[in-house]
Amino acid sequence: MRFIISRMAARLPILALLLLGLGCMLAPAVFAQTQEDNILPVTEAYKLSTDASTPGTLKLHWVIAQDYYLYRGRMKFTAGPGITLGEAQLPPGEKHVDPYLGPVETYHHAVDASIPYTVAPGTTHLVLSVQYQGCHEVEPKICYPPHTEQLDLPLPATAPTPAAGTSLGNALQQIGENGNDTSSDPLPQEQAFKFSALAQDAHHLLLRWTMPKDYYVYQNHISLKLKDANGLTLATPAWPAGGVQHQDAQLGTVTVYFGDLALPVAIEGDTAGHKQVTLEASFLGCKDGGVCYPLMTRDATLDLASGAAVEGVTTSGTSTPSGPLQSSLLVALLLALGGGLVLNLMPCVLPVLSLKAVSLLEGGETPALRRRHALAYTVGVLASFLALGGGILVLRSAGHALGWGTQLQQPLLVAVLACVIFALGLSMSGVVQFGASLGNTGSTLANRGGVAGDFFTGVLAVVVASPCTAPFMGGALAYAFAAPAAHALLVFLMLGVGLALPFLAIAYIPALARWLPKPGRWMETLKQVLAFPMYLTAAWLSWVLANQRGADAVGLLLVTLVLLALALWWFERSRGRGLLHHVLTALLVVLTAAPLYLLVQLPPMTNAATAQQGTVPYSSAKLAELRAANTPVFVDMTADWCITCKANEHTVLDGTAFHDALKRDGAVYMKGDWTNEDPAITAFLQHYHSPGVPLYVVFPEGGGEGRQLPTVLTTALVQRALDEAAH
Fold first, then answer.
1. How far, CA to CA in Å, does 602 sit from each of 505, 552, 554, 712?
2. Whole-angstrom distance, CA of residue 503 vs CA of residue 377
3. Vertex 508, ends 492 and 334: CA angle to 5°?
4. Is the pTM for the entire model greater than 0.85?
5. Are 297 and 280 in contact (CB under 8 A)?
C-alpha cells in the first residue's frame, strides 16, 4: 500500500497540470465575459491635485475611486534640479498582508500628503516626480504598474532657500542620496503633448499641440477626422513652415514639429445644419533621443458658432486600458498553459522538438533516465521563459515598446540563430559530436553532458518558438505585457509549463511511455534524417535576413556557415591532439565572426511585404483617409519571421476567394510589415493590445470600431467579417 501511495504522490503534480490544461477549453468563454468589466485609466482611478501656495511645503491630494486603493509604501517623491525635498508626511494607512508584497498599508477614498522643501537661489519652479501604485480590489482584480506624474509648479515668492553653507551641488548630492533624479524621465503623454482645438468660424478649425523642449510630433502620422458628421469632411491641413527635417532611425528623413504646432484645418461641406462637430486627432510623438509614445488619440467636441470646446479635449484610444488588464490572472494562466501546449504543434518548434524526441528514445526503457531528460528539458524551457519575461519587464520599465517575437527584428540575432540551427544539423548528421566527454572519463561525465544537452534543447525550443503565436497565446501575452511584474512572470512560466508538459507526461506516466518505440540502430538513421529540418530552418532564417538586409546579408551569412562548418569539422578532427590544433580551431572560430560584423553594418531594406500587388502599405494617415471615404479596410500586420502570418497568407490571404471577397465588398487590403522595427506599426499593435503579429483588424464602412480577428484565420471567417463590414 505504501508503494502505491508513493507512486500516486509522485505523479500528482503532473496529473494536476494535465487537469489544469483541460481548463483551457473553458478559458475563452471566461475571458470573453471579463471583457465587459471596465477598468479606469490610472489618472482617473487616482486623481492627483497639488497646492504649492504655502512657501516651503507642497501639498498633494489624491481622490481615490470606489473599489480602488493606493499603497502607502509605493509612493516615491524625487526632486528636480535646485530642489531639496524633506521627508514626506503621510497618514497611516489600513494595514493588511498582501499576497505578493507582504505587510502593507493602503488608502481608500482619499489621502493627503505634505512634503517640505528648500530651493537653491535662482530656482523659479518646483519640479519633481511623484510615483504611486494601486490596485482594483474587486473583479477583475488587477494592479497597475507604478505610475509617475511629473510636476512643474511655480514657486511662491517666499520659497525657502538652503541654509547658509549649503550649495546647489550639495543639494543635488542630497537628491542623489534620497533617490535618482528623474527630471529627464519621459513625461506622461498628457503633459508631453498638450492638445487643444477651437472653431475660428463655421468652416475653419485651429488645432494646437504644445510640447516641452525636445518633444516632437510626426507630420505624416497626424490623422484627423470628424466623427458622426454626415456630409462634412476635413480638407488637407495647411501645414505651417516650422517643420524640421528629422533623421529617424526607422523611417528615414521625416518632417517633425518641435515645441508648438498650430495647424489650420478647413471643414468642407454645408455646416448650416451642424451646431457642433466632434474632431478626432490621432498622432505619434517622441522625445528627442528618448522614447517614442504609443499612438495617441484626442477627441474634442466644438461649437461651430462660438468656437468653444463643448466637452473639452479628452484622451481616448490607447489611454483606455480596455483589454489585457480586464482579464483575471487565473484566466491569463489558463490561456498561457493552452498556448504553450499548442506551441508544440507549430512548425517553428517541430525541428527542435525532434532533438528532444531522439533523446527520449535513447532513454530506452529506463524510467529514471527518461525523467532526467524531461526534467532537464523543462528547466531549460522555464529558465528561458523566465529570462524572456524578466527582460521584457526591464525594457518595459525603460519605456521601450515590445512585442512577441520582436527579437527577430535584429538581423544579428537572426544570423546567429541560423548558425546555431545549422551547427545542430551538422551534429545530427555526424560531422561533429557535441557533449562527448574527452577521453571517455566515465559515465558520470557523460550523464552530466546529456542533462546539459537537454537543458540547451529547452532553451533553443523557446528561442525558435518566439516567431509563432499559437491560439490562446494572444490574450495571455497581452495580459503579461501590461500586468504587474509578478503576474507577468507567472504567465511566462505557465507558457513554459505548457510547452514542456507533453514530455513531462511521457516521462512520468508509464502508460504513455510504453507507446514509444524500442531503441535500435534505426535511431541513428532517424537522427540523420531529422538533421534536414534543421537545415531548412536555417534556410528560412536566411530568407528572413534577405528581407531585412538584402542579398549581401545572405551572402555574408553563407560565408559564415561555411566557415562554421570548417571550424566544427576541424574541431572534431582535433580531439585529443596537441595545442597547435586547438589554436587553429580558435582562429577559425574568430574568423567565423568576421562576416557577422560586416553583416551588422548593412543598411535596412525597404519592407517588401507591403509592395505586393493589390495591397496598400499601412499608414495611419492613409487608414484615416479610407475610413473618411466610408471604405471598408482589412488591416494585416505581419512580418517575414512570423510563421503564423505566413501560414495564414498561404492558406487564406493569398487565395482567390479572399481577393474576390475584397472586390465584392469594395474593401481595401492594407498591409503593415513589422519585419524591421516600425514605430507606427508598434503603436497600432499597442492600440489593440496585441503582443505581436499577426494582427488582423477589419474596419467597417460608415465608421465604427474595428473588429479584431483571431490569429489563426479561415476563409469563411474572413469572408464573413468583410461582408459584415460592407453592410
1. 46, 8, 11, 34
2. 8
3. 30
4. no
5. yes
Q: What percent of the chain has pLDDT over 70?
A: 72
- 204 φ, ψ to 5°? -135, 125
The β-bridge relationship of strands 125-132 and 707-708 is unpaired
Partner residues linked to 278 by β-bridges = 227, 301
Q: H or E element: which one contains 634?
A: strand 633-638
The phi-psi region of residue 393 (left if phi > 0; otherwise alpha if psi is between -120 and 50; otherwise beta) is alpha
**Cα(122)–Cα(128) distance, rounded to whole angstroms?**
17
Cell numbers given for 329: 490572472
User: Coil, helix or strand for 449?
Assistant: helix
Separation of alpha carbons 515 and 518, rounded Å: 9
- The number of C-alpha atoms within 13 Å of 713 and in the hemisphere containing its C-beta is 28
Could you give the C-alpha distances from 256 to 40, 214, 293, 453, in angstroms and in order?
32, 11, 14, 52
| Confidence band for 706, pLDDT divided at 50, 70 and 90 | confident
H-type alpha helices, 164-226: 168-178, 189-192
Show Cβ contacts of residue 452 under 8 Å, excluding neighbours closer than 6 positions.
376, 435
Q: For residues 675 and 692, is the Cβ–Cβ distance under 8 A?
A: no
Tell me how far apart the alpha carbons of residues 241 and 257 are, in angstroms, rounded to a whole number.
10
List the beta strands (DSSP E) in 270-317: 276-283, 285-287, 296-303, 309-317
Query: How far is Cα 541 from Cα 539, in angstroms, rounded to an integer?
Result: 5
Task: Look at residue 639 and tell me whether its pLDDT is greater than 70.
Answer: yes
Q: Compute the distance between CA of residue 715 and CA of residue 707 in angstroms, rounded to an integer.
A: 16
Coil, helix or strand at residue 318 = coil
Sole residue written with cell 557577422: 596
SS (H, E, C) 139-156: CCCEECCCEEEEEEEECC
105 contact partners, CB below 8 Å, separation of at least 6 = 71, 72, 73, 92, 93, 94, 95
Half-sphere exposure in the Cβ direction for 523 (13 Å, CA)? 16
Three-state helix/strand/coil letters over 506-552:
HHHCHHHHCCCCCCCCHHHHHHHHCHHHHHHHHHHHHHHHHHHHCHH
Look up residue 724 and give its three cell numbers.
459584415
Q: 323: phi > 0 → left, psi -120 to 50 → alpha, else beta; which? A: left
**Phi and psi for 549 in degrees, rounded to 5?**
-130, 5
Is 80 exceeded by the pLDDT of residue 354? no
Query: What pLDDT is recorded for position 670?
Result: 93
Cell (9 digits) for 498: 505548457
Which pLDDT does position 169 carry in this prediction? 33
432: helix, coil or strand? coil
In the block, residue with C-alpha cell 489650420: 264
Residues 397-453: pLDDT tens digits?
544 445 555 566 778 878 887 888 788 788 778 787 754 333 333 333 333 446 777
pLDDT recorded at residue 13:
43
Q: In this structure, are residues 280 and 301 in contact, taking their beta carbons and an 8 Å threshold?
A: no
Distance between CA 80 and CA 182 in Å, rounded?
7
Which pLDDT tens digit goes with each residue over 130-158?
Answer: 999 888 888 877 888 788 888 888 877 55
Which helix H or strand E contains 255, and what residues bound it? Answer: strand 252-258
105 by DSSP, 3-state: which?
strand
Is residue 534 within 8 Å of residue 428, measured between CB atoms? yes
Which region among 78-92, 387-401, 697-711 has the lowest average model confidence (pLDDT)?
387-401
For residues 495 and 343, what is the distance between their CA atoms, to the nearest angstrom? 9
